[in-house]
Amino acid sequence: MRRPPRIITCVCCGQQGPSQGRGLIRACYQRHRSTGVLDRFPMLGKPPVQAGKAAREARLARLEDYADLLAWGASWKEAAARVGVCRRTAERYNAALRTLESESPERKSA
Ligand SMILES: [Zn+2]
User: Which of 87, 88, 92 is nearest to 63 (CA)?
Assistant: First the structure.
């Protein structure tokens, strides 16, 4: 469940708008993120760890399901449809799985 954004005064330009994080309004947050200078604006307060963790676990579970379907001989299109993700996400999964394969079975430990 997502709360509606608070209306704040942006720390960078003083304009009022919906809060996106780091004391920035949405337009500024996205502008700073796209230009790569978001780090200039420190995060305020604690991040909502639990929410992020749950989403990450759900994503990981979907990726595992997707990998299983592929292992069972499904095409990536079938696997994507079964897991309920779009083509774009399936491509990310494919890339993630390739990365995992290249790192496994044993990571270099020195
Ligand atoms: Zn601003």
Answer: 92
